[in-house]
Design brief:
With 348 residues, the protein is an alpha/beta fold. The protein contains 7 helices and 11 strands. Helix 4 runs antiparallel to helix 5 and helix 5 packs across helix 6. The termini are far apart. Bound molecules: 5-phenyluridine 5'-(trihydrogen diphosphate) and manganese (II) ion. Manganese (II) ion binds next to loops.
């Protein structure tokens, strides 16, 4: 009896050790492949990266983090903080940045930002980049992509550690309509060719603007749109949607949720890829039929966001306009368009 028992114990022990070894190997393999990804990333080639950016999964909070107690009965009452399809609308005072940053630090995310500075718009680039480095995802890995036709006029801006600046050459164009059309195409191609696998989120921003306050992890989501500061108190009949049914950007009277900005949008790379591709195709198909939407890509973006509801909506804090007086519900202006002399900067 005793002999059988000790044999059994040895077998069980053996199996346990084997399983343990297997587990350790597996773990080691994962961390190894992660490191490999890192190495090749730096060398500029593409590898598959373990996905860690899905939306609608639980958010893992680091253990032991202390932060103020959330309330479900007290909060902002002067603004609406959720859409009818239950996407959050991000306003100052609705989120805890310490908590959010800790959650996304753990996920080790990379955010990309695209900005176009074609022709005289190069003059806005320095302020844009300097303020972005300070306020846009501070403390996180950010890759800025500048598209310009004036390569030697790109300002030397020192980025904080872990943040990069890549300049891409685009042909000069005298027609804004062309620049606008090509923006979506270039965003689509950038995603396809450069970072489908190593960037998690992307934001596409106007260059004629500056950061004045935090724009960070609270803005992350699958598909992210920004409410236009010019129309958010208006009835939707006044929104400058494309109103001709012949256009693929058409939004009928009585339709539409909000009027969103063309000057800032973003989300998960795969989502923004879908958006850019769709808007580009619709833009080009319209053009073939000799039609151009009222506000070019902004009109197509608005049509897209009407069909494909954004999973996170950013309040006008995220794209204000310097010439506009701050409204009382806007507690903090984070990003704002500068006042520009149109006659001076635009080619047409
Ligand atoms: C914009 C209007 C007419 C003609 C040309 C342009 C233009 C836009 C340009 O010459 N160069 C250029 O880089 N852009 C890019 O498109 C900038 O990133 C700019 O921020 C963005 C959108 O154009 P904006 O900022 O003039 O449009 P609004 O609606 O913010 O005034
Ligand atoms: Mn602008």
């Amino acid at each position: 009896m005793a002999k059988v028992n000790s044999k059994a114990v040895i077998v069980i022990l053996f199996i346990t050790v084997l399983l343990g070894l297997l587990y350790v190997c597996q773990y080691y393999r994962i961390s190894l492949s992660f490191e490999e990804t890192w190495k090749t990333e730096k060398e500029g080639s593409q590898t598959i990266r373990i996905s860690h950016s899905s939306t609608d999964v639980h958010l893992e909070s680091p253990p032991g983090l202390k932060y103020s107690q959330p309330s479900i009965v007290h909060g902002r009452t002067d603004v609406v903080t959720v859409t009818p399809w239950l996407a959050p609308v991000v306003w100052e005072g609705t989120f805890n940045e310490l908590l959010l940053d800790s959650i996304y630090k753990k996920k080790n995310i990379t955010v990309a930002a695209t900005v176009f500075a074609v022709g005289k718009y190069i003059m806005f680039l320095k302020d844009f980049l300097e303020t972005a480095d300070k306020h846009f995802f501070a403390g996180f890995r950010v890759d800025f992509y500048v598209f310009t036709d004036r390569l030697n006029e790109v300002p030397k801006v020192n980025m904080a550690a872990g943040r990069t600046l890549t300049v891409r050459s685009v042909p000069s164009s005298n027609r804004w309509q062309e620049i606008s059309a090509r923006r979506m195409e270039l965003i689509q191609k950038l995603i396809e060719e450069t970072f489908q696998n190593h960037v998690d989120y992307i934001f596409c921003l106007d260059v004629d603007s500056k950061f004045h306050g935090r724009w960070g992890t609270e803005s992350l989501g699958g598909l992210v749109a920004v409410i236009h500061p010019g129309y958010y108190r208006d009835n939707r009949s006044r929104f400058p949607y494309e109103r001709r049914p012949a256009s693929r950007a058409y939004v009928a009277p009585g339709e539409g949720d909000f009027y969103y900005c063309g000057g800032a949008f973003g989300g998960l790379v795969q989502e923004v890829h879908q958006l850019a591709k769709t808007c580009r195709n619709n833009f080009e198909d319209d053009a073939k039929e000799g039609i151009e939407a009222a506000w070019q890509e902004e009109s197509h973006l608005n049509r897209y966001m009407w069909i494909n509801k954004p999973s996170k909506v950013l309040s006008p804090e995220y794209l204000w306009q310097d010439f506009k007086q701050r409204n009382p519900e806007v507690l903090l202006i984070r990003f704002s368009g500068v006042i520009k002399n149109y006659a001076n900067i635009r080619p047409n």
